Amino acid sequence: MPSDWSHASVWLPLFFLGAMGFAMLSYVVLDGYDLGVGILLNRASDSDKDVMISSIGPFWDANETWLVLGVGILLVAFPFAHGIILTELYLPVAVMLAGLILRGVSFDFRAKVNLAQKPLWNFLFYLGSLTTAVSQGVMIGRHIIGYESGLLGWLFAALVGICLPAGYALLGSTWLIMKTEGELQQRALTWARGSLWLTGLGIALISAATPYFSPEIMNRWFSYPNILWLSPVPVATAMLFFVTDRAVQNLKQNPGQREWLPFTSTVAIFWIAFFGMAYSLFPYLVVGKMTAWQAASSTASLWIIFWGAIVVLPTILAYTLFSYRIFKGKTQPLSYY
């Protein structure tokens, strides 16, 4: 790791690493809830499906901007890592793109076909959402363990691929709690309760399995005194699960009270999980092989990109905040005519 942090060649890669992390975290949370709504779509009635789609309608396409931004930063700021990562993740990336395309086509077609064909496109929207979530989980699992090619490495990636849709379903159900009312909101509360504990089980299993594949990660978390300094992380995570569960139970008995709390606490769980993973992997972009400084473009190139980034990042953030402000409040039923 560099010793002189005052040089641009040192802090510019760190800036872009932070910007890429922020973009990816924003994507996971924002597109995570609308993927979650898609995953839950198969459990709802036809009338509820229209309301669920309406709840994400103004946001879902723009949410994917954060994924494009994150991958774009990886490409232009860390080209040496970009080639390795996308080569290693070629198959799950291809599957993810197929899922995203299927979601986009289904979103539009379900509103234009006749009523007899609508259930098919609802199912395809669900399938595209589930496929996207599973492939993203596999990508995260493969990256965490440094693209370990053995059977256990693929089993770990499959475990993350199974668990991530539960986390997205938790985000989606808590989003619906905020955006809907009546019977659909009550169903969302039930979905949130089930997804919450599946998500907790997934986080526990992944947290236990990750150190097995990386002695360095094991040492970072469990050596003394790190284990003391880091003990608030699992404690805070457990508390947030408890807060979410209590908020969901309270809303079942007293609808309308602090409907924002389950979603907010779920987002906080994702934030903690993300920063825990970032702490485990830093400063590597390719685990155990290439740090951010080794993967970075030349300093001259990074300077040019930097001036663009400090304009683009606030612009996208401001647009995102503005759109959520404009479309705040309860979702209105869809009307195509």
Q: What report would you give on this structure?
A:
- The protein is an all-alpha fold and 337 residues long.
- The protein has one domain (12-321).
- Helix content is 79%, strand content 1%.
- It has 15 helices and two strands.
- The chain has helices spanning 8-40, 46-56, 60-63, 65-77, 79-88, 90-109, 118-144, 151-179, 182-213, 215-222, 226-229, 232-253, 261-281, 292-295, 299-326, and strands at 284-286, 290-291.
- The protein has a two-stranded antiparallel ribbon.
- A hairpin with a 3-residue loop joins β1 (284-286) and β2 (290-291).
- α1 runs antiparallel to α7 (118-144), α1 packs across α8 (151-179) and α4 (65-77) crosses α5.
- The longest helix is centred in the N-terminal third of the chain and has 33 residues, at 8-40.
- The protein is globular, with a radius of gyration of 21 Å.
- The model has no long low-confidence stretch (mean pLDDT 88).
